Amino acid sequence: MSEDRTRNGIRTARWLERFFPGSFSEPRDRKELIELLQQAKDRALFDTEALAMMEGVLQVSDLQVRDIMIPRAQMVVVERDAELSQVLPVVVESAHSRFPVIDDDRAEVVGIMLAKDLLQYCGDEAPRFKMRDIVRSAVFVPESKRLNVLLREFRASRNHMAIVIDEYGSAAGLVTIEDVLEQIVGEIEDEYDFDEGAFILKRGANNYTIKAHTTIEDFNEYFGVTFDDSDYDTIGGLTINAFGHLPSRGESIDVGGFHFTVVRADSRRVRLLNVERITEPETAITMQDSETAENNPQ
Predict the structure, then answer these.
(1) DSSP of 210-264, one letter per residue?
(2) Is residue 195 assigned to a domain?
(3) Are 91 and 39 found together in one domain?
């Protein structure tokens, strides 16, 4: 591990010399390195998006699988003994491409099912569906594994999903190659199929998936509510304030008649939220109204 860091440090130093010829001095810590990158961005050597990606690359080696995994309770799974009629609705509703296959409970993952493997069972002359025939071996990784190591293993094995296990060998959650890459390049939209330019995706009668940078003004107009936007511009900012901290994937909270669940987040920002309306528009209250009621009980 130390040898890898030394080699990476040498490469980084040589790379930075290209941006600061003649005046470059090797940074002593990560803070100084980020400052140098910021200076390069200010000199228009690259843009803000490129800077964010570089910071993400530096951060990946410090993060562990437990920091970004989808918790066990949030996993979309299928059962090993399920019939095709039970599996298809799960696949269609979630729109995922890979699913952990469980035995008796979520803590016991026996393999991975790929949605594309179900195609052979479509049609009048299709063979009888048996889950056991299409279950693939699962990759298991500990919660403490570093993301840079996991990414290297994903690339070498060509796997896209791994089951995260705790110290007792039970499934604690799952992680995908996309989750790791998003720490570097930001949000990658896939199963959340937003129309171009859209911020809110309706998924059911009262269920929605919303990009966290949706403005409160747009949210209010869509849902017919009056959240206060004087302190926060986006729905992500409003929910972070409600949590009182930067939430992790899977955390949820009720705000003004809505149940918000974090779908995607990293150590810098919330990216995607699932939203469930739990009250009608006329009974929904604003964040400010809620705080006023708490501070002035009758």
Answers:
(1) EETT-BHHHHHHHHT-----SS-SBHHHHHHHHHTS-PPTT-EEEETTEEEEEEE
(2) no
(3) no
DSSP classification of residue 136: B
CB 174 within 8 A of CB 164: yes
Range of the domain at 17: 2-46
State pLDDT tens for residues 192-202: 555 556 788 88
Could you tell me if 144 and 237 lie in one domain?
no
Q: The domain that contains 280 carries what CATH number?
A: 3.30.465.10
Same domain, 80 and 39: no
Cα–Cα distance measured from residue 294 to residue 86, given in angstroms and rounded to the nearest whole number? 45
Q: Which residues contact 297 (CB under 8 A, 6 or more apart)?
A: none
Residue 1: helix, strand or coil by DSSP?
A: coil
Alpha helices (H) in 44-110, listed in sequence order = 48-60, 65-68, 84-94
Tell me the CA distances in angstroms from 84 to 79, 102, 120, 135, one per residue in order: 11, 15, 12, 13
How much is the pTM?
0.58
pLDDT in tens, 214-254: 899 999 999 999 898 888 889 999 999 999 888 877 888 99
Kindly give, in sequence order, each residue whose CB lies less than 8 Å from that of residue 134, ignoring residues fewer than 6 positions away.
113, 114, 117, 118
The type of residue at 112 is I
Q: Which of 101, 106, 103 is nearest to 91 (CA)?
A: 101
- What secondary structure letter does DSSP report for 126? P
